[in-house]
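Reviewers of the previous submission asked for a worked example of the structure-prediction workflow described in the proposal, so we include one complete record here. The input consisted solely of the amino acid sequence. No template or homolog information was supplied to the procedure at any stage.
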Amino acid sequence: GGLGGQDMPELTEVRLGPGRLGLTISGQPAVLPIAADRWLRGLIPGSPPVAFACRGAWTPEGRFEAELRMIETPHAAYLALDPASRQFTLTWREPTLHSRDLTGYRA
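From that input alone, the workflow returned the following structure tokens.
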């Protein structure tokens, strides 16, 4: 689908499954555990891997909204999925210092 308001162009696909958020970043798959009522920890592969805490839930309007926090940094991203339009947006709350991707971040 199309990418609107996209702060991370290397994130090309988002898939939502029971208790999991599947991401494709620079062609590499990653799966993060996700729940509505608590923060769950997961890793996005890389050199080194980047640790995230995630939480997400459906809104009354039928969108799935998640917050992805990079553990041990001030960086957090908001991910919104709209199944009706098959689109997603990812927006950094605190823009990363070097660039807008995950390169160079340790957790």
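The radius of gyration is 13 Å. We consider this example representative of the routine output the project will generate in years two and three.
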